[in-house]
Amino acid sequence: MDKVILRLKERSNIPVEAEAICPDLFLTKSQQEIEELALYYGNKGRRLGDFFQVQGERSDNIVIEGEIPNFKKIGQGMSRGNIHIQGDVGMHLGALMKGGRILVEGNVSDWLGAEMEGGSIRVKGNAGHLVGAAYRGSSRGMRGGEIIVEGDGGSEVGELMRRGLIVIGGRAGDFVGAFLIAGTIVVLGPVGLRPGAGMKRGTIVAFQEPDLLPTFHYNCLCQLSFLRIYLHHLREEDLNIPQEYLGGFYKRYNGDTLELGKGEILVWAGQVA
Amino acid sequence: MFRISGGEVYDPLHGINGEKRDIYVRDGKIVAPEDVDQKHLEVIDASGLVVMAGGVDIHSHIAGSKVNIGRKIRPEDHRRDPVPRSQVTRSGVGYTVGTTFVNAYRYARLGYTTIMEAAVPPLKARHTHEELMDTPLIDKGCLILMGNNNFILRHIGSGDYDKIRNFVSWLLHACKGYGIKAVNPGGIENWKWGKNVAGLDDLVMGYGVTPRQIITTLIRVNEELGLPHPLHLHCNNLGLPGNYQTTLETMKVAGQSRLHLTHLQFHSYGGESMRNLSSQAPVLAEYINEHENLSIDVGQIIFGEVTTMTADGPWQYTLYQLSHNKWANSDVEYETGAGIVPFLFKRDNPIHATQWAIGLELFLLIQDPWRVILTTDHPNAGPFFFYPQIIKLLMDKKYRDEMLASVHERASCTLLSQIDREYSLYEIAIITRAGPARRLGLRHKGHLGVGADADIAIYPKEVDAEWMFSNPRYVFKDGLLVVKDGQIVTDYMGRSLLVETAWEESIAEEIGKEFDRFYSISLENYPVELDYLPRYEVIPCR
Ligand SMILES: [Zn+2]
């Protein structure tokens, strides 16, 4: 498969605004044109070629070699293709993306997939705060697509999310699914404070007993076929889903009753029955 | 010193209607040809171009605490509209609630050079002036909110009229204000109790006075002080179906006295509920046509994103309930209040389309262009940088009908499709500069006669009026070239426009007692000092 490989020349701590690293743009550009793409290094305009050795051209498959935790906005708004990042990467990765796929071997910073509309993101390490969230002031966060973080997530995962799936393999910080409008958030590890605060609809799935707000009310013990389908899907994605999660019962709580109250938090109850 | 040569000049104050005239400028003023040294004269070639005085906006919200609350609650508004800096200009953001610098640049790039900030709570006057110090290029004035002020309400109740006049005079001085603004008189005071007033004769809680009394008193004070601008009134019942009756009654309250009714579009509704909201613009236009003491600005709807912000707290709560958007409420102690709600005007919404048509009806049915002024009540009904679109709608019947056909069919229940009137460039010059300048009592603005400020906008002559008025070739402020071919080329600080009226010292003592007991700041920190303003100009009273 054709691809464009970007090899980091030198590591830096100065933030780089790199929305130019986007499959939609690379697809039609020669190697030289890719090298000439504009990035902001601090407040100075620079060329992509100043930071990376570029190999390949005219492809929507991008491979980035090196640690780039200071590079922001990679894949912002992308609608197609692949980005494979072999190390750590910075904020706003895949924000506003509409399609395509992003794979990160290392860790990512905040705002991963913020307000994304479609496509999928897979992170093997940890993610920062506000995964799939709404930018401040916006009425809606993630609107579609899938984000899987194998490690931990920070605070406000899926804040104001409207549609789609977010999976956190490890622990999640405070305010998971705050103001959730719809969509599903699955947290395999422990959940921080106030999950689902202000949620209207949507589903948060937890496997360890969370500390729920008093505005969530216990409904019933249930087994849900949609959840089994979702968990099977996650197994196919090579996530470690124990067999008992698939067959077990879940406690259903509805809330946030300060809002619409049509949201649900499902908590695995073990092999009851 | 320069001459603007060979341009087509539109100067309605002097009856000049597109004739070729040369304009001479020296020391920031327009002068007679014999007052310049013809040998050392720079010449600006304006042949084929349209020359007008700089635009004057009689009602806009560009500075102060509620604009700032709007900025704070709308980061999404800014994220979509970043503005990089240039050699001359600062960076900033738009869109509906832009940064001070960006607002100023955008006004100047339309050829506007004088703006009235239309709602300044006295307690926030200092903040407002501080923002206006960062609003370059244009001249600016502040209309001070007085329609719900404790001191005024209380003395209307006690019948001590002299005290009120003294107080108003002092307050204008303390705020470095230009005129008196009243918003939903009495209603904002009642909002402090979670209520509103529904008509001119409802009681204001705790004071036993009525909106009618407040309006009558403020008109009388305004006229006795001889302020250059009449009372600037935002009527009761804004936005509500059937409110045209309140508006009509309010106009009658004015009798023969001057009165300016702001964003009349929001006050021209028939019907009993939002479902059957309809236009009563023709009724109001007829009344205005017969009463020369009245002037209005329109508050034309622009389809798209807006940020509504007004001292009318109870209405903003209603709007919040209607829209489910975010809402900020502000209570300004003894003086007034405010509410801020983002809003989206949609073409396919029957109410919004009707509101849009009502605004245009007002423009087209009020015969005397000197008394109808172009505004969008920025950023309430639309951002000001859409003024050129409104100009095109007024000048081009075909374009207007096309737009009417593209919006919700309910707009066709208005008279709009039956009105054939098209504005001429001469009339556009009236509703955007000569008219508002006259109504504000700014004798040296809005025209190109000898002695006027050399605030001049020069537009390319184009068939498409929207393009033409969006792209002035040159804009001069006080004789300085500030915009050339759409770019800001000079950084310049305009003046704050003020009035000075007399008051008796005894009033300060009485106010001092109130301050000690009830205000969060002391009287000493309240008045804005004259030194505080980088540049100012006192406009004489009548
Ligand atoms: Zn206003």
Automatic annotation (TrEMBL), chain A:
SUPFAM superfamilies: Alpha subunit of glutamate synthase, C-terminal domain. Keywords: Membrane, Transmembrane, Transmembrane helix. InterPro entries: Formylmethanofuran_DH_suC, Glu_synth_asu_C, Glu_synth_asu_C_sf. The chain crosses the membrane at residues 175-193. The keyword Cell cycle does not apply. It comes from the Bacteria. Residues 74-209 form the Glutamate synthase alpha subunit C-terminal domain. PANTHER family: TUNGSTEN FORMYLMETHANOFURAN DEHYDROGENASE, SUBUNIT C (FWDC), TUNGSTEN-CONTAINING FORMYLMETHANOFURAN DEHYDROGENASE 2 SUBUNIT C. This is Formylmethanofuran dehydrogenase subunit C. It comes from Candidatus Hakubella thermalkaliphila.
From TrEMBL, chain B:
Residues 42-489 form the Amidohydrolase domain. It comes from the Bacteria. GO terms for molecular function: hydrolase activity, acting on carbon-nitrogen (but not peptide) bonds. Gene3D superfamilies: Urease, subunit C, domain 1. InterPro entries: Amidohydro_3, Formylmethanofuran_DH_asu, Metal-dep_hydrolase_composite, Metal_Hydrolase, Metallo-dep_Hydrolases_sf. Pfam families: Amidohydro_3 (PF07969). CDD domains: FMDH_A. This is Formylmethanofuran dehydrogenase subunit A. It comes from Candidatus Hakubella thermalkaliphila. The lineage of its organism: Bacteria, Bacillati, Actinomycetota, Actinomycetota incertae sedis, Candidatus Hakubellales.
